[in-house]
Amino acid sequence: MATTMQTSNLWLIIFSWAALTVGAPPLLCDVLQMLQKEEEQCLQELSKEWKNNSENEQPISGCPGVWDNMSCWPSASAGQTVKAECPKFLQMLTGKNGSVFRNCTQDGWSDTFPRTDAACGYDVNDTTNEKRRSYLLKLKVMYTVGYSTSLVMLLVALGILIAFRKLHCTRNYIHMHLFVSFILRALSNFIKDAVLFSNDVAHCDDHMVGCKTVMVFFQYCIMSNYSWLLVEGLYLHTLLVISFFSEKKVLQCFIIFGWGSPAVFATTWAITRHFLENNGCWDINVNPGIWWIIRGPTLISVLVNFILFVNILRILMKKLRTSKMRGNDMNHYKRLAKSTLLLIPLFGVHYIIFAFTPEDAGSPTVEIQMFFELALGSFQGLVVAILYCFLNGEVQLEIQRKWRQRYLNNWFWMRPALSSSFSNGASGPTQMTKASPLEQGRGTAWKASVI
């Protein structure tokens, strides 16, 4: 009877928790895997205990050891009270440690007291859970809209920069790579959500392999995004500091750095997780030391970008005061600096602020951190597309030039058709008068001047 009640309590906690989560805590497959491991360990310990009793020919009396689907209870004599720690998945969910107890009576094990959910800091009837659920659902809608909007606008911006050959230069090549990094970030987020929030618990073993792969890809995309933001700052700094350099070689180095360095850290993190912390879907970071393999390089890139930001401002102010640069060069650097200098603090400050804050679900700052990283962060791609493409004067001029060229071509192609229709209509009731040689000459001269 007690075991049956424990089972019902377990599923009540799991499914009420599953209904409340949108973001980070353990997945159903994670929970089931943790429980399976704890059950295996418990059965091994109980088996050893039974063997020792058999070898020592000790009579089995009182309450036999049992796994009640949540906790492991060793054998106990009648009248004894046994203590057990809270299940690990509840400790991960609440961030709290607690204990539960059972009495061994003449009739067997008593019910667990206090209730496991209450003792371990998780109250399924707490109204704050409903508020948190509502907040997280709104947050999920916001970042889904943000990433979707950013994805569409980034694809359009990337298509524009690729389509117009006159826009092909080192600066815009770097912008294209930055666009791709934001596109991958949005796609990886959609893929991650689809995998993490799939409640197909019937295929948890197969699910875990794909889930871990998705998490590695997701971390790689996040790091690549920050590395290309750093490349934008490095390129502007290089333009201002170094007078002559091979743009082709610099671009090649930037490409290797922008896509290669995140691959090194993401691979290192995956290998380390596999051997030292191979728990669940790798979406929960229990060991902070392993998590710093990802967080450390990202934080360094943001700090370096901020240092570049300060130095670029200093150099620009100095050059403006001395007026050593030609007008065209200064205008070129000003345009690039406006967008880049806006992106560096805009996309980096929140990461520095929240870098050293605790990430457990009970932390008071976690909701604020999630808002900045998910809701506002999802619109970063849109901001980049607007600054580097849609508000770019060169892009606007090239689009206008192509539009005029196409309009004039269509107009000149239409003129023979119009002339033919007019000449055919001369036999009708209303006839067009033939133009004089002088008027024809004027028309020819006007056409030549337009061309």
TrEMBL record:
Positions of the UniProt region annotated as Disordered: 423-451
Keywords from the named record: Cell membrane, Disulfide bond, G-protein coupled receptor, Glycoprotein, Membrane, Phosphoprotein, Receptor, Signal, Transducer, Transmembrane, Transmembrane helix
Main localization (coarse): membrane
SMART domains: HormR
Membrane topology: Multi-pass membrane protein
Gene3D superfamilies: GPCR, family 2, extracellular hormone receptor domain (4.10.1240.10), Rhodopsin 7-helix transmembrane proteins (1.20.1070.10)
InterPro entries registered for this protein in UniProt: GPCR_2 (IPR050332), GPCR_2-like_7TM (IPR017981), GPCR_2_extracell_dom_sf (IPR036445), GPCR_2_extracellular_dom (IPR001879), GPCR_2_secretin-like (IPR000832), GPCR_2_secretin-like_CS (IPR017983), GPCR_2_secretin_rcpt (IPR002144), Secretin_7TM (IPR047037)
Transmembrane segments: 141-164, 226-246, 253-272, 292-316, 336-356, 368-391
Polar residues composition bias: residue spans: 423-434
First and last residue of the signal peptide: 1-23
Pfam family, one: 7tm_2
CDD domains: 7tmB1_secretin
Annotated ranges, domain G-protein coupled receptors family 2 profile: 41-124, 139-392
Alphabetical GO biological process terms: adenylate cyclase-activating G protein-coupled receptor signaling pathway; adenylate cyclase-modulating G protein-coupled receptor signaling pathway; cell surface receptor signaling pathway
MF terms in GO: G protein-coupled peptide receptor activity; peptide hormone binding; secretin receptor activity
Localisation per UniProt entry: Basolateral cell membrane
GO CC annotations, alphabetized: basolateral plasma membrane; cytoplasmic microtubule; plasma membrane
Family recorded in the similarity comment: Belongs to the G-protein coupled receptor 2 family.
Protein name, as recorded: Secretin receptor
Protein encoded by which gene: SCTR
